[in-house]
Design brief:
With about 140 residues, this protein is of the alpha+beta class. The protein folds into 2 domains: about 1-35; about 40-135, 2-Layer Sandwich (Alpha-Beta Plaits). Helix content is about 40%, strand content about 30%. The chain has 3 helices and 4 strands, in the order H-E-H-E-E-H-E. It has a 4-stranded antiparallel β-sheet, covered by helices on one side. Helix 2 runs antiparallel to helix 3. The longest helix has 26 residues, at about 5-30. The termini are far apart.
Length: about 140
């Protein structure tokens, strides 16, 4: 092999190594590790607390939270609950009720339905409103 061919081959090897390093760096992301897919579905449940038959509260607000928390801890091991007031008009009558808004991530629809079944029974509801929202979830630790 001539000296000229050896130099050309050496240059091509350096270029190939440099391109490989750039390609690897691009595929690893800024922190040197592959970026995780943080896409998730957040389920938001709206649990009214008035009895479906009498339209009277099934539990006092504090007890309603306790009952919902028991179901959520049993099903998921954790939860986020916000308190709200719901209202609607039926004919000439306006109804209001204490409502729990429950946010759940890192779960699936079957598990959410199982918890909703327990809530429907415990709170004597016709239904529980469930919203499924596509989100990006990150447990940020600094």
């Amino acid at each position: 092999m001539s000296k000229k061919a050896g130099i050309i081959i050496s240059i091509l090897c350096v270029i190939a190594i440099a391109l490989s390093a750039v390609s690897l760096a691009c595929s690893l992301g800024a922190n040197g590790a592959k970026e995780e897919d943080n896409s998730d579905v957040q389920y938001v449940l709206y649990l009214g607390t008035n009895d479906k038959d009498t339209n009277e509260p099934v539990f006092a607000p504090d007890e309603a939270k306790v009952q919902a928390e028991k179901i959520l801890l049993d099903q998921f091991g954790g939860y986020t609950i916000q308190e709200a007031n719901g209202g609607w008009v039926d004919g000439d009558t306006t109804y209001t009720e204490y409502t729990l808004v429950i946010c759940l991530s890192d779960t699936d629809l079957d598990s959410v339905h199982a918890a909703a079944d327990d809530m429907i029974k415990t709170f004597n509801q016709s239904s529980v409103l469930i919203q499924a929202n596509n989100t990006v979830t990150e447990f940020y630790a600094g």
